Amino acid sequence: MLCLDQPFQQFSRNKRPNMMTTSPPTADPYLQADIRMTLEKSDLWKSFHNIGTEMIITKHGRRMFPHCNIGLSGLQPYTNYVLMVEMVPVDNFRYRWNKGQWDVAGKAEPQLPCRTYIHPDSPAPGSYWMKQSVSFLKIKLTNNTLDQHGHIILHSMHRYVPRFYVVQADSLHSVHWGHFHSFSFPETSFTAVTAYQNTKIAKLKIDHNPFAKGFKGENSQSYLFYTFSPTDLQRAKLECEPAEPRRTLGSTGKESVAVLFSPWTIEQDPSQSQSLHTELLELHNHRQDYSTEEQMVPGHSSRSYQPYRSVEYGRLPSPSSAVEVCESRRSCEPHIPDVATVPGHETTKSDPLRDGCHRHHPMVPNMPQDYKLSPVHLPLSSRTYPGPLGYSYPLHGHYPTDPSMGQWGEGGAVHYPGQYLPPLPFHTSQTQTTNHSANQCGGYHLGNTVAEWSWSQYMSLDNEADLTVRPQ
DNA sequence: TCGGCTCGCACTTTTGAATGGA
DNA sequence: ATCCATTCAAAAGTGCGAGCCG
């Protein structure tokens, strides 16, 4: 089964072993694919996660803090990749802050159009992505459903987790969406809020976010002394340094630190938690035969993340899952992730690595319409879910396939208890792809420098019928 | 009445243009 | 003429609190 006791150092760029040759395919699913992603500043993320991360969302868009900074390894140096991230609902609940803890306040709001943020440097060669850590600093979150700036639209008082995609693609104009890997980091989950509910989170942000230094009072750190261990304090002290340059060589600085789950998940109604736990276990049993390509990357200590790769297809109205559910509801319109970009987040710097290859600016206003077909364009074989964990699958594409390309096979997904994620958005058939192009409303429209794709209204799963849908 | 949201404020960092010197 | 470092103002990001709204 899964070997979750691997020291996290194994995943760091510099020390990773060649798992493809030294480990049996099923030994460590999230290492099967040679592509590895590490979360930079994971300690900072965990500091927030331990309290219950909250992210402010505003009408005009708010940056995330901490922001997502990842390291990549195992990419083909001269192959182009597109990096994307989307915010995936963690569960199907709406929350409220009640007496110092998060309580479930009912069913989640209907899903909003899912926007996938494409890293503005995409596409770029693997060597470029691996050269330094990749920052998603400029992602902006909004609660404005009519947002025209391409920000990621979220519901307040709902929980999300960023999911990263690494897609082999020559350019945004000819994306090979079949070759992708996805990664999630449990400690990056957060609750979207319009105002901070937990004062500890606000103080932690003030302590770490340089923009908020103006609110740093004498008492701002006092709570730390009873919230964190001396180790945490030392770590927090180190992390108080000024923000690093946007793209710096990654230094994961991984330590072997126990992963602590956020108390807020425990603080919930015990009966609710028990119910969820039971459901998750049941789902786990149900889904043994399925896997997504997602790799749930554990924290420093993987021990806390029990192998769990179940995906609640029916219950979770994930934008990503909509397509799959739709497959059993042929009359509905499929959902395709919208594409969110950030105005002004354009790469102007010159980089020999990148300049040496053919690339197009992601926000090029005249994005060809065929691009909108790409995100879900998979061979028919992808219609079904990937096989059992540990198998590699032949991939299409016009890149020479060397023996190491086996690593492109989608690895299994490793989830952890207490959190389940929807399936990936790219499981679909060509038929559905066709429907996408037919059903999208107005193709894509552009505002300023933002390329935004608005497909038809994704189906709403906000009804009981959806709860019974199961993947075939 | 209350929970959630919006807006303006003061403060900070970041960014880029302007300037001057080598 | 070019390059580099410095300066400075504008832009952008931040949490807080008052007030609004359903």
TrEMBL record:
Keyword Nucleus: yes
Protein keywords: DNA-binding, Nucleus, Transcription, Transcription regulation
Biological process terms in GO annotation: cell fate specification; heart morphogenesis; pattern specification process; positive regulation of DNA-templated transcription
InterPro entries, A to Z: p53-like_TF_DNA-bd_sf (IPR008967), T-box_DNA-bd (IPR046360), T-box_sf (IPR036960), TF_T-box (IPR001699), TF_T-box_CS (IPR018186)
Pfam families from the UniProt entry: T-box (PF00907)
Segments of skewed composition (Basic and acidic residues): 346-355
GO molecular function: DNA-binding transcription factor activity, RNA polymerase II-specific; RNA polymerase II cis-regulatory region sequence-specific DNA binding
Region span, Disordered: 336-355
Domain of life the protein comes from: Eukaryota
SUPFAM superfamilies reported for this sequence: p53-like transcription factors (SSF49417)
KW Lyase (keyword) present: no
T-box domain boundaries: 39-217
Gene Ontology, cellular component aspect: chromatin; nucleus
Location in or out of the cell: Nucleus
Protein name: T-box domain-containing protein
Origin species: Esox lucius
